[in-house]
């Protein structure tokens, strides 16, 4: 029995090929695991009947035909593309960091997660777009449902280089202008920027009626501090450095990180924003399942 | 504090290692990218105080750990009270086994208590010490600990008195001459007051004198001496009475006179034992008992020859002074001639003595009246001439015989003082010549001027033995006085000496003649068991900064304490382990 790619170690899955292959494999496995679409449109349109098969949901049985001909038929519908999803991907320098070479960088993990998410949405015929940003907005692919949209999104991911600093606030503000119709906004980031400014932008989106989902990406090495007895840690974005002894600061650091996660979670919940903490060693399927 | 391996202290420089490592490590940390530096900074800000304290604590602990280990390696020796090894010490143990140590106090001899203390002192010595033992004979004995222990175990109360001041002075000089760090003298004695009466010991600074405190005072009486004179034994008593119990009590004295020893010059005496008893009432002051009792000797003991006797008291706490032998010589009857000028009283006395066979006719002793100095007589007793005009002639006669004395001008009247002739004491002298001369023996005085002198075999009187000159011829002691003059004084008394030792009498002989005797017995001062006060002991042994008077338990703790050291390395190693455990706990628990 073939293993489901969505449940394998992300680094191992990434070695299978490019983003498209990985994303498709992940989505195939993911959709096989769920029995219905994780996302629902605003309306559906009838297309045809087909004979009932064991396992079909009874609510789709056509009771009229059953009453007239005593035969079991189910109705099939085509969902309309009323959902407009925009994926915001943080491409800053901090995202290009990995704790160990065996793991994916946060950016690589985010690319694959975004590609998989976009594929799922597009297969549901939801209009899906992509915005990548660091200090500035680097790529903007408007939400569409037409064929080739996923390819454009993947190319957009590939064409976005690792940036420098992070200006989520500016990117999100610009995004509000792009999202005229309300829809779904998925932010994939390590959230290493000013929380209050970012939350202000997210709150604004929420205020405009958007469904907002935040994927907080962290490398496991960012959760549990390790390293040489004494080391100078440097922030790749701001070049701020600090000399610490990881062993004696590990407990305090872990407490700080947990407090930060809890702060994000609490703030998001307060404003109706879905918050998900994802570590880069988490299988993609599990990360996607957080959305169901 | 001192160290067995002081060079190891150089390792203390290693105590700087933690600080150096800290400084060196801080300068070259590797640099790594780490995006969530903001979290690190926040964590560090919150933990800065705790971390600073932890770093300081760890550095102190590590520095202290190294310092303690280095100190332990140097093997520090710290001064200790009680147990523990001591540095090499020169020590003299003075075990005073003088006669007084035989006194029974608290159901046991004093010497037993002293011996226990001596053994304890010796047991504390080590092979690095130099040890001497001094007993009452004053001899310093060196040797191994085992040999000295054997001497202590075999020691008994001796017969010699120990002058503690002199003994401590000599012991202090011996130990002071030794090139050893410690110098001690352990004085284990009953600390009789009389043994400290000879001044103050010269003890140099650095020499510790540790004296065992004396026991309680006890009552004792002993026979200090026995002298025989004119048919009577004079018994001197000595001893001590504790304060509050100095009410005089009669003391029965028994005298036993043994058989006589014949000598060539005497006629010999009878054998057997003659007992006599007397009753003395002790007197004295300040706890010291001094008294004398005179016991008349029986007539048999007046027979010529050497006589031995023994005076005894009833037993008390100190037995060695309860008996004392004595000896005296009764000379054979002298052959005496009195010249006509000697006077009627002398002639009458000689007649009485002749009747009593105390003298016989002969010219061994000539008693003259100053007319001549009896140039041919072996012994002469010369009175001044009755006629003052003949004094010059008489003086020339004395000079011719080689007598350095002569009669001078007339002296003032007075009473006789004659310690050696108690019968004469207080007799009035109305008329006399001053005796002028030098040296020789003055036997009696009047107004502190010689009245009876002996020069060789000539006795010279300042007055005639006549009632016009002195009341002596009328005194009851006149005949015994003439007896003493002719039989004892002019011939020369037998030489009886006294010496310290086990009670006995030893005769000295010349050829077949017995010429003297030595009577052995304990020193009379040993009978006084009054202990010296701590202040007196301290003063006599060199002063407060050198002397400690201690109880047995305190002495046990104090001996060798001046140089007693304990190796503290074990304690330091335990401390190091403790520090290491604390360091480990701080390093792991405070992360």
Protein architecture, described:
The complex is a heterodimer of chains A (292) and B (591). Chain A has ten helices and ten strands. Chain A has 292 residues and is an alpha/beta fold. In chain A, the strands form three sheets. In chain A, strands 5-4-3-6-7-10 form a six-stranded mixed β-sheet, sandwiched between helices. A two-stranded antiparallel ribbon of chain A has the order 1-2. A two-stranded antiparallel ribbon of chain A has the order 8-9. In chain A, helix 2 (19-33) packs across helix 4 and helix 6 (168-178) packs parallel to helix 7. Chain B is an alpha/beta fold and 591 residues long. Helix content of chain B is 26%, strand content 30%. Chain B contains eleven helices and 34 strands. Chain B has a nine-stranded mixed β-sheet, with helices on one face. Chain B has a six-stranded mixed β-sheet with strand order 9-8-5-10-11-33, sandwiched between helices. In chain B, strands 1-3-34-4 form a four-stranded antiparallel β-sheet. Mean pLDDT of chain B is 83; it is low at 264-271. Chain A binds chain B through residues 93-94, 97, 190, 192, 222, 225, 227-238, 240-244, 247-253, 255-257, 260, and chain B through 25-26, 29-44, 46-47, 51, 54, 590-591.
Fill in the keyword field for this structure.
A: 292 residues; B: 591 residues; alpha/beta; 11 helices; rod-shaped
């Amino acid at each position: 029995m073939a293993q489901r790619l969505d449940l394998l170690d992300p680094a191992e899955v990434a070695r299978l090929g490019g983003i498209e292959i990985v994303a498709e494999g992940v989505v195939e496995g993911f959709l096989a695991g769920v029995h219905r679409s994780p996302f629902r449109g605003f309306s559906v349109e009838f297309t045809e009947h087909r004979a009932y098969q064991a396992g079909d949901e009874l609510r789709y049985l056509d009771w009229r035909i059953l009453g007239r001909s005593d035969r079991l038929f189910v109705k099939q519908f085509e969902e309309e593309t009323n959902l407009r999803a925009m994926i915001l991907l943080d491409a800053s320098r901090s995202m290009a960091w990995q704790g160990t070479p065996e793991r994916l960088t946060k950016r690589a993990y985010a690319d694959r997660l975004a590609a998989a998410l976009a594929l799922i949405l597009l297969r549901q015929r939801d209009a899906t777009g992509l915005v990548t940003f660091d200090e500035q907005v680097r790529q903007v692919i408007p939400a569409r449902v037409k064929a080739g949209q996923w390819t454009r999104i993947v190319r957009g991911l590939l064409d976005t280089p690792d940036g420098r600093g992070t200006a989520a606030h500016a990117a999100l503000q610009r995004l509000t202008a792009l999202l005229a119709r309300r829809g779904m906004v998925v932010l994939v980031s390590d959230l290493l920027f000013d929380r209050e400014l970012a939350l202000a932008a997210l709150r604004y989106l929420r205020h405009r009626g958007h469904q907002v989902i935040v994927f907080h990406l962290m490398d496991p090495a960012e959760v549990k501090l390790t390293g040489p007895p004494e080391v100078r840690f440097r922030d790749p974005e701001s070049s701020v450095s600090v000399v610490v002894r990881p062993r004696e600061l590990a407990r305090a650091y872990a407490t700080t990180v947990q407090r930060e996660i809890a702060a994000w979670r609490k703030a998001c919940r307060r404003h109706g924003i879905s918050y998900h903490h994802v570590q880069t060693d988490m299988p993609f399927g599990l990360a996607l399942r957080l959305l169901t | 504090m001192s160290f067995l391996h002081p060079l190891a202290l150089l390792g203390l420089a290693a105590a700087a290692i933690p600080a150096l490592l800290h400084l060196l490590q801080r300068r070259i940390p590797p640099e790594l990218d780490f995006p969530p530096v903001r979290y690190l900074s926040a964590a560090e800000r919150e933990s800065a105080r705790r971390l600073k304290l932890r770093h300081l604590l760890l550095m102190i602990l590590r520095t202290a750990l190294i310092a303690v280990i280095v100190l332990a390696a140097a093997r520090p020796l710290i001064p200790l009270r009680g147990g523990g090894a001591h540095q090499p010490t020169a020590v003299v143990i003075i075990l005073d086994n003088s006669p007084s140590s035989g006194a029974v106090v608290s159901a046991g001899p004093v010497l037993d208590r002293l011996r226990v203390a001596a053994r304890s002192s010796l047991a504390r010595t080590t092979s690095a010490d130099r040890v001497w033992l001094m007993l009452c004979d004053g001899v310093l004995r060196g040797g191994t600990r085992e040999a000295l222990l054997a001497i202590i175990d075999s020691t008994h109360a001796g017969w010699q008195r120990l002058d503690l001041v002199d003994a401590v002075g000599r012991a202090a000089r011996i130990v002071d001459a030794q090139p050893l760090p410690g110098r001690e003298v352990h004085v284990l004695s009953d600390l009789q007051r009389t043994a400290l009466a000879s001044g103050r010991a010269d003890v140099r600074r650095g020499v510790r004198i540790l004296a065992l405190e004396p026991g309680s005072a006890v009552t004792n009486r002993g026979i200090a001496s026995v002298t025989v004179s004119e048919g009577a034994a004079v018994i001197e008593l000595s001893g001590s009475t504790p304060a509050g119990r100095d009410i005089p009590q009669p003391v029965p004295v028994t005298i036993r006179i043994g058989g006589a020893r014949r000598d060539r010059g005497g006629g010999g005496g009878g054998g057997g034992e003659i007992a006599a008893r007397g009753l003395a009432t002790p007197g004295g002051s300040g706890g010291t008992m001094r008294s004398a009792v005179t016991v008349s000797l029986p007539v048999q003991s007046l027979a010529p020859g050497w006589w031995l006797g023994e005076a005894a008291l009833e037993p008390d706490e100190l037995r060695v002074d309860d008996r004392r032998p004595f000896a005296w010589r009764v000379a054979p009857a002298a052959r005496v001639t009195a010249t006509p000028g000697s006077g009627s009283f002398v002639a009458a006395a000689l007649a009485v003595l002749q009747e009593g066979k105390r003298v016989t006719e002969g010219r061994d002793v000539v008693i003259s009246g100053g007319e001549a100095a009896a140039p041919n007589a072996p012994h002469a007793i010369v009175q001044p001439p009755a006629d003052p005009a003949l004094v010059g002639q008489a003086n020339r006669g004395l000079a011719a015989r080689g007598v350095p004395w002569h009669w001078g001008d007339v002296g003032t009247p007075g009473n006789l003082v004659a310690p050696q002739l108690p019968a004469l004491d207080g007799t009035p002298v109305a008329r006399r010549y001053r005796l002028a001369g030098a040296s020789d023996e003055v036997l009696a005085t009047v107004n502190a001027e010689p009245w009876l002198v002996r020069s060789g075999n000539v006795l010279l009187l300042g007055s005639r033995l006549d009632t016009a000159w002195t009341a002596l011829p009328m005194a009851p002691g006149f005949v015994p006085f003439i007896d003493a003059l002719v039989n004892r004084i002019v011939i020369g008394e037998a030489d009886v000496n006294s010496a310290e030792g086990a009670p006995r009498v030893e005769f000295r002989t010349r050829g077949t003649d017995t010429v003297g005797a030595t009577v052995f017995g304990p020193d009379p001062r040993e009978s006084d068991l009054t202990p010296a006060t701590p202040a007196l002991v301290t003063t006599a042994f060199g002063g407060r900064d050198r002397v400690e008077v201690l109880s047995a338990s305190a002495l046990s703790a104090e001996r060798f304490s001046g140089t007693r050291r304990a190796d503290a390395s074990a304690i330091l190693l335990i401390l190091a382990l403790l520090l290491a455990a604390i360091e480990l706990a701080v390093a792991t628990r405070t992360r």
